[in-house]
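Lab meeting notes turned into a lecture example. A postdoc, R.K., suggested we walk through two folding results consecutively so the class can see how the record format repeats. The first protein's sequence and structure tokens come next.
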Amino acid sequence: MTNLDMSEAISMLAQEKGLSEDALLHVLVDALASAYKRRPDAADEVVVEVNPDTMDFSFIAYDVDEDGNWTNERDDTPKKEEMGRIAAQTFRQVMSQRIREVESDRKFEEYANREGDIVTGIIQRNDARYTLLDLGRAEALLPQAEQVPFERPAQGERQKAYIVEVRRTPKGPQIVVSRTHPGLIKRLFELEVPEIAEGIVEIKACAREPGHRTKISVWSNDHNVDPVGACVGARGGRVRMVVNEMRGEKIDIVPFSEDLPDFVAKALSPAKVTQVIISTDGTQADVIVPDHQLSLAIGREGQNARLAARLTGVRVDIRSETQLAEGIPAGGRDVEAVDYADGQWVANTETGEMEWHASDGTVISESAWQDQQAAEAAAQRQANRDAEDAAIAAEAAGETAEAAETADDAAADGGSSGAATDDEPEPTAASTEEDGSSD
């Protein structure tokens, strides 16, 4: 192989492995030094130098004295045919090993600087302990603790994940990713919302219960830009992309406010808050809501209140207006023991029509409510008729069974009487005459 061919081979190998030519030349020099020392008459130490332009190699040999000093410097560049089979084999082994080490270091440096970023990978393996994501040149490990409950993507499916840690291991860099980290929501919104990527809109805080619900608070540095509208997008297109990526996880976007009572009230959305009282130390918020909004403010199993507390950084205690009037302190009554109001009637300011505001946040008109009540009443009447028919059928079936049982008992009694008559037959005429003659 000529020097020109060797230069082209190094350039092609560097492109294939994704390495620089300088790094590959250092690997080549180390491999040649290791191969040189396998020669029978090799010196104690050697320094290999290479000219990158001409690809000419020189071997500077040294002897080592008793004190460990390098002495007797000389040029000991061998000819190609003098290297020998063992030296050539050593060269190949060292070359392959050093290339793997350089690739591993390059991958570690590449992903170590990306902690806190998101990556897209293909599900390569999925079991109860962990999931492997193929990132192309590397693999990412998604542990069971970092997976969303009940989320089991199929093998070969694409999935985004958040890089939480990059570890250096003997087998190469280990990239640990997460699907439950709140940072994943922030990064997804940065991809979908240009205003966030440009710094016009900021995500101030994020509270998340993976797989169920997430609340984020947003702030705009430009008073002409609505932060909530920018994150929601036209007809909800931007937030819908994030929800689809998170497999339907609900996302609430609330505007951030430096006024803590106002921020707490907005964090409890979609519930309507009457009053927010902040403690003197600023660590607790006593929230008053209408009776029909109490269950909505607390949320299912306290989820809405819990996420609002994480988002605002204060403890949130919720009471209804009735509880406030009764003098019940915050947290003084068990949540499960509270009798929630189903809703209340509110007049529409535009049409004047009465509307039913249910406790779950839904609003229906009076006519629709009447239709709904009529349908429920009809369904209840039908259910009652079905129950009566079933009871009548069951009663008839019981009478039929009783009659059949009585008939069986009668047949059994008749059979036993016939058997007794056969055992004791009535007297015949012959027997009567015999009785008379004997007299």
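The second example is placed directly after the first for contrast:
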Amino acid sequence: MTIKRKIKIMPLVIILTLLLCSCQKNIHTELFEVRNEGIALNGDIKEQISGVKEKPKASSKTEKKEYEPLNYDEQKAIWFSYIDLAEFISGKSKSEFKESIGTALENVSNAGFNTVYVHVRAFEDAYYNSKLFPKTAYLGEKTYDPLKIIISKAHKLNLSVHAWINPFRCGTTETIESLSDGYIIKKWYDDAEKNGTYVVSVKDDEHMWLNPAYDEVRKLVADGVKEIIENYKVDGIHFDDYFYPTTDKSFDKSAFEQSGKNNLSDWRIDNINKMVKLVYNSIKELNKKVMFGISPQGNIENDYELQFADIKTWCSKDGYVDYITPQVYYGYSSTSPYLKTIKRWDSLKTNKKVKLVIGLAEYKIISEDEYIHNKGIIAEQIKDAKKLSNYEGIAIYNYKNLFSAENEYSDRVESEYAYITEELS
């Protein structure tokens, strides 16, 4: 009787033992996956161990939020030239610069402006931290960042900031020779094949110039723009009318001969168009809402014959500019009469995506008779600009002449200031 019971019990003991071993294996596997001490297992290895396919984890890396530019349907802009900035920066500490530029921007805001075109590179010298271009000599040994301060203070006043660049104008031979060997322009200058082709001296001009004929030069211009947008919350990029510095055939003779083209003017225009389109595309790849504008000469014939600037294409086709600010620096009785000139620009601007902003020469109220003797002339020009079918803003050159006039002109400037601010309000 006892022996039979033992025989019946034995199979049950064996089954329970096997089940217990199986459970232990599962426990050890689960603990290994959870603890994961010392070894980071990839998904394939974990799947082999557990038999369970791992679900992909959500990335913990947060994407950099794209800056939302501050721009206005109607630009009321003023140019801050490098001459303006030089007075704020030269010999000034960071705190002194903050105070002076802060006051200047408050002046601009109080007058009714909503946009500032700030010169950040006038001679391939940077008023910001750059790896591509040397800092401006006006900073001396100072290490603060003027552009960063300007943007911070301007945005607090709801002022849109457009970084103003001269794309091709360089410093003198002396300033280039003093540069560190790491800068691209210095490398070109020191290269026997590129000095005179990429970087060119011009008769009766102390500055050297970059030659738009070369892909590498155009790329440097675009890379310089990208560097600003990647590191600063600018609302726009602004070029003025410095493209080709001369009509002299010797300026780009070698490149033209190598091009195989037979019309120098058309070829130069095409070079500038390539640069403009490259800059536009570079901006939009980084932030579609950052604006790109160009301020060509007000004289349309000069744009083509002297600057090789294809303003008709820029005003009519997509992919070149977001706004055009012709420098219509003419009086009503000028050889290029103001009214006739702005109407020509109005008819040129056929692309609805391109804004027309009329540039005005406030500085002439102390230098030209028609401006001197006609109080309120700038305000009158603003009124006439507003009558254009394509009007979307005005820009006034420049800060110093409107806000820091010399004493002998102070009464005339104050009078004009009153008319301007009334029209901007």
